[in-house]
Write a structure and sequence with these properties.
heterotrimer, A mainly alpha, B alpha/beta, C alpha/beta, B: alpha/beta, D-Maltodextrin-Binding Protein, domain 2, 2 domains, globular, C: alpha/beta, Rossmann fold, OB fold (Dihydrolipoamide Acetyltransferase, E2P), 4-stranded antiparallel β-sheet, about 20% helix
């Protein structure tokens, strides 16, 4: 398992190797010249500030929604449970376009924070809701019996790893995002990278700058690691449910507002694009083709990502230690790099190492894996906790080979959790654009690339059907994600 | 398989051409009725043209669409192993960047001969296909024709305070600033940038947004490429005359009337690819040029093809006397725009 | 005597900690041996090494004459009954039991289910069973493939005290009926003494005494074992109460068991506490010289009051250390 985990992590290292090679060519003066400037510091500072604001907002909204949906008598909590997860299906660039085209003068730091929060709070909401459902009620009962309010003293502690993991994904997402921030016109660090490429056709300068994102990520990883409580906790199969807090109707406006911001505005904008303009996609067949190719690419990306995540996640759950931790963290290190940089690194890899795969769907799937490995590793780790090692030991003592045991015990027990990871990766692949543009097979159109094609030439009405189908197809796994969490 | 043969041929060719004049050692052009195009220009514009080409020649086009700059970066990363035969780019800067790394072959003389010198690379590694003029787009409700500026330098005046839209991260704006530097020197260019910044210039992410905001009356004027009003009209289902956004071409060779090009380069390994050659000939031929004139409202660069109705002829434009080959100091321009604080 | 499981000179270290130090143990065919020791003594490590879940640093494990020391768990033919059963939650009871059987061997699965008294529970899911029933299924599952050796890891510790004796008896009976050879590890001396044919007492990674339950209880090899396998009363040798008691061995301290001590009318000692267990009771006594004793009396009789003076009598044989 160890060697498989090491090999899998190597995929996540491709972008770093590429950065190393190209930045190494740049020379020391060039590096310091690019990085040690006032503008770099300013943009990095703003990126960090944006990531901080969005992460805090996502934690507040995500935890509040999760608590309301799982632990209260809120009317319509099942509906809100699904609605709270659905923004995952809306690509942030679509949401940003929607806001810009709906609200006058929608631009700047706080507007970008609003869009990014609306799109990414489900990254906190989903794991926290799952943790709130899975948490042992006995601990809260003890706290209550000792006269303490259990939420802060016990519950927060139980869900802290989920909050930290979700918050980390949000922060890294914000650092890496270019589409939404450029549409909402806030000047952040990814902008510097794209300016180098778009204006100066200066790849090296862009990559030198990208290393700053890697450094920021490392700092975040260290921070998140310190909040982790180590030691695997396995499911006890407790079927007892938590007592529900009585809140009545009071929080309904809050959840409704969150859904209106995250879902209502994009839906309204899409509808308007649809009816307002005259441009139309070539034919329904084109939309269907794009949808099916999106599906194929995202499904393959999901499978490849998951296969790579399995050994890393299992190692992490089964034999925690320095090696497992390092491999797990490696998956995250390139997660804050913009898709364009990941795409270029896979071009580099494809040309130099895997030429027969270049511009095939397989290399695209590998790029998705490099991009989204952390999502899957996290899911596999927590899924593995559903299958305690003692079950595998018993199974082997009954004369079954490790492979048979994996198939007959580990997989069936971890399948729901692994499925959740696959769904998350799948829908994230569906939305991915920059790496898809660089790496897709020639002539291979997906919903995201078609959406880009049409928005690039301001044909919003033609773009609308693609956006709509993209959101709907992504909504299915999202709905499944929230449904399987027993929300 | 095709690229293997082609690249072997290309290697053989470069080995020979160092010694002898190419005309004598040129092998027979190879055709497999297929050409691979990297297009930095958008699918909506290019696809119908390619279909016409295939219909006319029977040559299939495999085409990748992408962002011009990202595609240039991709080509640089791919190097000699790129599957591309032809790179079709949105602007001369991207072509220059790829040419600089030696990935393009020198185009044949008869191809280069179709386009005047200012719209092609000096060393013959890329050639312009269409021209796009920088213009001032204005809202005819907000600005009277008589009030229009005679020069971009007038835009720093108080009458344009907070009224001008620019897209400083856009390549076309950037080429324009480079032209300012070439024509007037770095100090004046920087002075102009500082001037419009102090004058409250409004930053937009791209030309299309500027035109949309001018049309909506949110901006009075904006610096864009001429064809964006046509795209706006098409998206809104109107004729260009029905728009409030009108075009103003700067007179008297003002830098504001710079004519830039979209163009193409032929990858080294395709230097003997008959299909790629046929593709280039088609784009620079009457049908291709006419398509651009009518469908994308750009200026044809080959003599004898009419411009779109309502546009002044390319020859009638008072474009500044600037050689596009001199606009290769993009880095310095980027640095200047950054320094002034506009990007 | 036919040896089914033979462990010799088994040593296992975790970093600098020596968990097992040259352990030797022999289990006869059809016997149940209990490894008894306090938590942290290495008994679970021993079980995991025998099962093949841990690699040993040195020593040999032989099952039925076959050296399995370096074999993976699935090739050792040693089945395990873990604490709390560890049934596969996604499989029905009968599928759990049939897990180690060749495909389609449902007859055997039902046979062992009947053996543990759950003949009609085959279609249930594990979470529909009580703790004791889950444990029975775990035993059935281990027995099903007829492994030469079954290992039981504190199999009763998580159950209600009231359930334990019955379950223990039933499982012992099932093991015996199936002719299984078993090694059980436990920290519960009552469990070890009641169920095992032989008890191996373990301390700090070593086996300190092996023997039938009665002899380990009656003739512990050292004071620590004496105290661990049962409640011990210590008197200095030559104490007045030992008059008339046959003392075996030589030493300054003499071991008595509370059941050897009885309370009569008199004033030899004062009652300091009474622990009533229902079927019996343990009376804490203090002699005038400050020595503490304990006497086990039958529960039916009335208990003396704390503080009351009582007479003390000692019966049977004693051991000096």
């Amino acid at each position: 398992m160890k060697s498989a985990a090491v090999a899998a992590s190597a995929v996540a290292l491709i972008p770093l190797v590429y950065l190393g090679v190209r930045v190494g060519e740049a020379g020391w003066d060039r590096i310091t010249g690019e990085i040690l400037t006032e503008r770099t510091a300013l943009l990095a500072g703003r990126s960090v500030a944006l990531a901080a604001v969005v992460t805090v907002a996502c934690v507040v909204i995500g935890v509040a929604s999760a608590f309301l949906v799982t632990r209260t008598d809120l009317p319509g909590r099942r509906v809100f449970g699904v609605l709270a997860a659905l923004p995952l299906a809306v690509p942030s660039y679509v949401a940003a376009f929607a806001w810009v085209s709906t609200v006058d003068d929608f631009e700047g730091f706080w507007d970008a924070a609003l869009v990014l929060t609306a799109c990414s709070y489900p990254y906190v909401y989903l794991p926290v809701a799952a943790a709130l459902i899975g948490a042992d009620p006995a601990q809260e009962e003890v706290a209550r019996s000792l006269g303490r309010r259990p939420f802060l003293s016990v519950t927060m502690r139980q869900i802290r790893p989920a909050i930290a993991a979700g918050g980390l994904l949000v922060a890294l997402y914000v650092l890496s995002d270019f589409g939404a921030v450029s549409i909402v016109r806030v000047d952040v660090f990814t902008r510097a990278i794209f300016t180098s490429i778009n204006l100066g056709f200066d790849r090296t300068g862009a990559l030198v700058l990208a290393t700053v994102l890697v450094l920021l990520t490392l700092a975040l990883l260290v921070g998140e690691h310190m909040t982790r409580t180590r030691g695997a906790r396995y499911a006890r199969g407790s079927l007892r449910t938590h007592a529900r807090v009585r809140v009545g109707w009071i929080p309904v406006p809050f959840l409704a507002l969150v859904s209106a911001v995250a879902l209502g505005v994009p839906a309204y904008a899409l509808a308007r694009w649809f009816v307002a303009g005259v441009s139309r996609p070539g034919s329904v067949a084109e939309v269907v083709t794009a949808a099916s190719q999106s599906f194929v690419a995202a499904a393959l990306g999901g499978v490849v990502t998951l296969l790579l995540a399995l050994p890393v996640g299992l190692l992490n759950a089964r034999s925690p230690g320095p090696l497992a931790t390092v491999l797990d963290r490696i998956a995250y290190v390139s997660h804050a790099l913009p898709g364009l940089v990941i795409g270029l690194s896979l071009v580099f890899f494809g040309i130099r190492v895997a030429y027969p795969l270049y511009q095939t769907i397989w290399l695209l799937a590998l790029a998705y894996a490099a991009l989204f490995l952390p999502l899957a590793v996290g899911a596999v780790s927590s899924a593995a906790a559903q299958s305690p090692p003692v079950l595998e030991e018993v199974a082997r003592s009954l004369g079954r080979s490790p492979l048979f045991v994996f198939r007959s015990v580990t997989v069936p027990l971890a399948a729901p959790g692994i499925g959740a990871g696959a769904a998350l990766v799948f829908l994230t692949c569906m939305k991915e654009l920059p790496a898809t543009l660089l790496l897709r097979p020639t002539g291979f159109d997906t919903l995201a690339t078609e959406l880009w094609t049409h928005t690039d030439t301001a044909e919003f009405a033609a773009a609308a059907p693609y956006a709509l189908v993209l959101v709907l197809v992504s909504a299915l796994p999202t709905w499944w994600l929230s449904w399987k969490s027993r929300l | 398989m095709r690229w293997i043969i082609a690249s072997l041929l290309a290697v053989g060719l470069t080995a020979c051409s160092a010694e002898a004049p190419p005309a004598q050692n040129q092998p027979e052009p190879v055709s497999d009725k297929k050409v691979t195009v990297y297009s930095g220009r958008s699918e909506a514009l290019i696809k119908p043209l390619l279909e016409n080409f295939t219909k006319a020649t029977g040559i299939t086009v495999e085409v990748r669409y992408g962002d011009t700059a990202a595609m240039a970066a991709q080509l640089l990363e791919e190097g000699d192993k790129s599957p591309a035969d032809v790179y079709l780019a949105q602007d001369a800067g991207a072509l220059g960047a790829v040419a600089k790394k030696g990935l393009f072959t020198k185009l044949p003389a008869d191809v280069l001969g179709k386009v005047t010198d200012v719209y092609k690379s000096k060393s013959g590694e890329w050639v312009g296909v269409t021209g796009r003029s920088r213009v001032l787009v204005y809202n005819s409700d907000l600005v009277k024709q008589a009030e229009l500026p005679g020069s971009v330098f007038d835009l720093t005046g108080p009458e344009w305070k907070d009224k001008l839209g620019i897209a400083p991260t856009n390549g076309s704006f950037q080429a324009f600033v480079t032209a300012l530097r070439v024509q007037h020197g770095d100090n004046e260019a920087k002075g102009w940038l500082n001037g419009i910044k102090a004058n409250g210039a409004q930053i937009r992410p791209n030309n299309g947004q500027i035109v949309a905001d001018v049309e909506a009356g949110k901006l009075s004027v904006g610096l864009v490429n001429h064809y964006y009003v046509y795209e706006r009209a098409k998206a809104d289902g109107k004729t260009v005359d029905a728009l409030k956004a009108k075009l103003h071409f700067f007179p008297n060779g003002d830098t504001g009337a710079l004519v830039n090009v979209s163009g193409l380069g032929l990858m080294k390994k395709a230097s003997n690819d008959a299909d790629a050659r046929a593709f280039i000939d088609y784009l620079l031929g009457a049908d291709g040029q006419k398509y651009f004139a009518e469908k994308t409202y750009e200026y044809p660069l080959v003599a004898g093809v009419a411009t779109a109705a309502g546009l002044p002829a390319l020859a009638s434009l008072k474009a500044p006397a600037i050689d596009l080959n001199d606009l290769d100091t993009l880095q310095a321009t980027v640095a200047m725009i950054k320094e002034v604080g506009l990007a | 005597m036919v040896v089914e499981l033979e462990i010799s000179s088994l040593t296992k270290r975790f970093g600098r900690v020596t968990a097992l130090s040259s352990v030797d143990l022999v289990v006869e065919i059809g016997h149940l041996v209990a490894v008894l020791g306090p938590s942290g003594c290495g008994k679970t490590t021993l079980l995991r090494c025998v099962a093949g879940f841990e690699r040993v640093d040195s020593g040999r494990i032989v099952v039925g004459g076959r050296d399995v020391t370096s074999l993976p768990p699935q090739r050792r033919r040693i089945a395990v009954v873990p604490q709390e059963g560890a049934l596969f939650p996604h499989l029905s009871v009968v599928d759990n039991v049939a897990y180690g059987l060749p495909r389609g061997s449902l007859k055997r699965a039902h046979e062992v289910l009947a053996l543990v008294g759950l003949a009609d529970m085959g279609e249930r899911m594990p979470h529909q069973l009580s703790g004791g029933q889950q444990q029975r299924v775990a035993v059935a599952r281990a027995l099903a493939p007829r492994p030469p050796v079954v290992l039981l890891d504190e199999p009763f510790s998580a159950l209600d005290a009231a359930l334990r004796p019955t379950l223990r008896r039933d499982i012992r009976a099932a093991l015996r009926a199936d002719g299984a050879t078993a090694l059980l590890v436990t920290h519960d001396q009552g469990e070890a003494l009641s169920i095992a044919d032989e008890v191996a007492v373990m301390r700090e990674g070593r086996i300190v005494q092996t023997g039938p339950p009665t002899s380990v209880y009656a003739a512990p090899s050292d004071p620590w074992v004496a105290g661990f396998v049962g409640e011990a009363v210590w008197l200095p040798s030559g104490h007045a109460l030992l008059a008339g008691v046959r003392v075996v061995g030589a030493g300054e301290r003499v071991l008595l068991r509370p059941e050897q001590i009885s309370v009569v009318d008199g004033s030899d000692a004062v009652v300091v506490r009474t622990d009533f267990h229902g079927h019996d009771a343990v009376i804490g006594l203090r002699l005038p010289d400050g020595t503490d004793l304990a006497a086990r009396i039958l529960g039916g009789a009335g208990l003396p009051e704390v503080g009351a003076p009582v007479g003390v009598r000692v019966a049977g044989q004693a051991r000096a250390f």
